[in-house]
Amino acid sequence: MSDWSRIAPQLADATGETLYMVAVSAALTVLAGIPLGVLLIVTAPDGLAPHRWTHRVLGLLVNLGRSLPFIILLVLVAPVTRGLVGTTIGSTAAIVPLTIGAVPFLARLVETSLREVSHGKVEAALAMGARRRQVVRTVLLPEALPSLVAGVTVTVVALISYSAMAGAIGGGGLGDFAIRFGYQQFRTDITLLTVVLLLVVVQALQFGGDTWARRLARR
Amino acid sequence: MIELNHVRKVFPGRRGGADVVALDGVDLAVPAGDFAGVVGPSGSGKSTLIRLVNLLERPTSGSVAVDGRVLTDLPADQVRQARSSIGMVFQHFELMDSRTAAENVEHPLELAGVGRAERRRRSADLLDLVGLAERAGARPRQLSGGQKQRVAIARALAARPQVLLCDEATSALDQASTTGVLELLRRVRDELGLTVLLITHEMAVVKAVCDSAVLLEAGRVVDGGRLDDVLTRDDSPLAAALLPAPVADDRVAGTLLRVTVTETAPEADVLRVLVGRLGLAVEVAGGSVETVAGGRHGRLLLRITDGDLSGLDTALTRLRAEGSKVERVAA
Structure pTM? Predict the structure, then answer.
């Protein structure tokens, strides 16, 4: 048990790295994914501003992002990462592929959420003389908010699981920790501890997201 | 106030199917201050018609004018502005679940850029007008159907429109709520001097609130006019829809007379002659008389069960000459 004093700080660092990667990429994903989802809905054939080619191109990009295994994406976007961060190694560098991987995921969830807002409500706003952007801002987004919160929660949870792969490019984090200390050193107890830690984080997030979404839905 | 001229609306057929003609050359003129109804069976084009008035749907051809402005000629930007002076109420209320009753009423004002204090004041006034002042903070899900529609009416009135469009506004409500909502609509029309266009498939709604109505069938206006006028016409399909002809039990013997009751031709005139002068035994075989558009209107079927019929035809001719609407039903 003496090695725990050696491992504990490393575990704390790894947890910090995971939280850092997930928090930053989640924020960026929300910033990019929600507008992208809105754009997908608005440009759809039955949307507020139908635009066939924009819709198709966006749909294609989103599908491309969704169909790539994350580990492949990680390698594929390396040049982009180098351009943006200056390096392809480390937690900060991992944020780039994490965000690129999660944005299409969230965009689809946002699209689905917004589609569930009844057309009648949109029409009611149009009948009041709403501009298209006002319809998005005062009808689509607020009416879909509970479902959007649920979508963001699912995305953040997915980001945690993606982030575990970031170790492959030296991004650190809990996944990397589990591989280096648990798997490679035949320390199943460390692997299990990491799993438990991840489970706790995911549970906390999911619970928080569910509670928030439920509170919004009960309004 | 509302004028549709030769309006046609054709929806392209799906997947190579035939085009659907929803409205086939409709003319409609609703004068300012009128409470006008459009009735017709489902699929007759009513919903399309009302959605054309604020251009939620654009006509394929023909023009739409509201308050002297030809909306179909206006650029999109001005159509949007024109819409804010046309309130609309929907069958399924379409309130925002994310907003309280008061916030829903404020919604159109918010869109128009009205300041918060003024919005608050206006929504409080309107919720008071519709009798829901104490539910201002309630969410739509906490309100009954009738209450939701009242909030929706308050919302439709927020931007001080001159025209109110009601799209099957009571069709999702129970009888008591329907009566309440119709009374409210009638009252706001009177108090605010609105012009109201209401579409419905329920004849009772038209009879309860409308001054005038048109009957729409398969995308065409087949009949219409002021109700007190329409109901005096025997050959009017709209009148027949509003006050269905009574059917007598043909197992009972006797001579049948059909009487159209109007404000100027009460059934009393007919009965006085039949019973009083000719001494016939008369019973009501069917029908009803109700108050519509402020006057008594109805259709009655009278059965002469006993008496000397020799003078009947002469008497009927004379009654008709004096203005009564009565005729013998061919046996």
Answer: 0.88
